[in-house]
Amino acid sequence: MKYLKGKYQPKNIKKYEGDPTQIYHRSSWELSVMLWCDTNPNVIKWSSENVIVPYLSPIDKKIHRYFIDFKIKFKNHKTILVELKPYNQTQEPQRKKKITKKYLEEFLTYVKNKAKWKSANEYALDKNYEFQIWTEKTLKNLNIPILTKLSKS
After folding, report:
1. Given 15, 30, 71, 116, which residue is catalytic?
2. Which of 2, 34, 41, 138 is the one with CA 20 to 30 A from 84?
3. Out of 15, 38, 69, 83, which one is annotated catalytic?
4. Cα separation values, 98 from 88, 89, 91, 106, 124, Å
5. Which of 17, 49, 85, 130 is an active site residue?
6. Is 130 a catalytic site residue?
7. What is the mean pLDDT of the chain?
8. Which fold has domain 6-141?
9. pTM for the full predicted model
10. 69 is an active site residue
């Protein structure tokens, strides 16, 4: 994921749930989804990192807070919680003959993410929402162009 950090100023302020002056993106993918939500006529409400779900980390056995990337409500009343991740981070890393430091880091991140996603899915079901993980493939299928540079807002 190519990183592009900054502040987002929505064009349709009334669609944003939360403080529209405090919307930050940490990647070009997040910026692209923000613009899509802001301008998509089928999206009636959206927020970024406003849904916080507790989860038990299998790494340290402690409760942590998971800030879900997006909450999106559509005209059809469906609400989804969205986590953006590169496709390769949604798959368990392939173990090689020799266990490397990189493999261990990727494996621990994957295990932690699986715990987050399990808690997010349970939270979503409890609220009658749906939890989805969007990758670069999802963005392409939704025709969301990945922005590569900031325009003046």
Report:
1. 30
2. 41
3. 69
4. 20, 20, 19, 14, 39
5. 85
6. no
7. 92
8. Trna Endonuclease; Chain: A, domain 1 (3.40.1350)
9. 0.90
10. yes
